[in-house]
Here is the input.
Amino acid sequence: MHHEEVFTNRNVSESSAYFYVDIETYPTTGWDKFKQVFKRTFNGELFVGLWVVLREMIKFDIHTLKYPLEKLPIGPRYRAVHKLLRLWESGYERCIGCGLCEKICISDCIRMDTRIDENSRKEVTEYSINLGRCIFCGYCAEVCPELAIVHGGRYENASEQRALKAGEQAEYPGFGAIIPGSDASVKKTPLAY
Amino acid sequence: MDVAFIIETIAKIVVILLVFSALAGLGTYFERKVLAFMQRRLGPMHVGPFGLLQVAADGIKLFTKEDIIPQNVVKPIFKIAPVITAATAFMAAAAIPFWPQFTVMGYTVHPIVADINVGILYVLGVMAIGLYGPLLGGMASANKWSLISAARSAAVFISYEVITGLSLLAPLMMVGSLSLIDINNYQAGGITHWIVWSQPVAFILFWIAAFAETGRTPFHLVANDHEIIDGFGTEYSGMRWGLFFIGEYANMFFISFVIAIIFLGGFGDGTIAGAFQLLLKVAFFFFFFLWTRAAWPDVRPDQLMWLCWKVLMPIAVVNLVITGIVILVQLKGGM
Here is the structure.
């Protein structure tokens, strides 16, 4: 299904869609000021406003979405939490361990370790993404030659604390990395409360 | 003074207090619902059916919240200010007839706490004392925004007292009495006898001034919405803040009663139909308070002062003079 969006540059100043609002000259004499006040008082603009809101109330065209119960569909290209895909036929991981995503990641949140296995194939032993550091720029998905890492649609990430202990997953140091000794502030497992 | 009278009066006071405290709570619910519908939202929906119990939830929250007295405030004045607002709002209700008199088991009940012969003067006077709530609360708060808001609301209240007074003088000259029951009975002949037909200018002026007196939206200067704080109520929390709120909403109901009784015939000839008509009128005026909040922007303080002193007051005076001349001419013609 091919969808082509019509390009309209709305910021072009020569565009005929833009025009100056006709602003009347500001009244200087007392009589002109009085006429302006009189006109503004009795042209019924206040009642236009009243009618507009009353019309919306009568039409009762409510736009509220009761969020946790109802959700809006998100776009297919939405960049939420990553997914690591597998091959359709064999079920093996698509990732070939090239490390491009780790290199391109501008917030240093992806860290992977690889080794050469007994079949002389490169194997990923450790792959971690710190979503607290990730800025969801999408470069990792863009650079991946095997379509192994893509962005998924899971966007509800709010949580109280980390699920993993520091050191259980490898990570680059730097801004946003897990603070050393922060395990002390981790409560029991989230299911315990 | 017999015991029955005292018991009856206390019963009436308690009923009015309970009914209008509850109505003030329900008023917040209606306000949130009406504003939401006008903005294509749903408003409170989760507590109880259609969010009706939101009022109870808010009440429990306000009652159980910590009563914080900030540092550097003038404690006694800070504590008493919300009480002044709520108390004066309810005191003003003493001279308002909420319902025509009716007979229960041979005992005639007058649903008015005190039918004093200066009724409307008393109502407006006590409502004017309500100014001390925001004024003292803002001044005692040790907060500059509160102070500015208090000064502004004081200026607005005092200025618009002039409008309410002057605009009411004209209908009062026609009626010849300050008692709200007399004013009501003057219009008992039906819709053609309503004072709004003979005093449309006074009606509109009083209505405009009612917005300033209750601090409702086109003149909502008591709370500085554009400063994203709550004006004189910034430092208040818990039930003290709730008292300000109850006072504001009770005032809205009472001023709606006053407008309906003075200009729109009140409860008419005193039948049950007339009484329900009074409630309908009050409901309309209360709804209009919410309606304008959804539709109109706030005006600047200087615009509000300009409107009061340069537009409304001269109109009120002219209306007063013309009414006086007409009454004099009618008296001459009658003689």
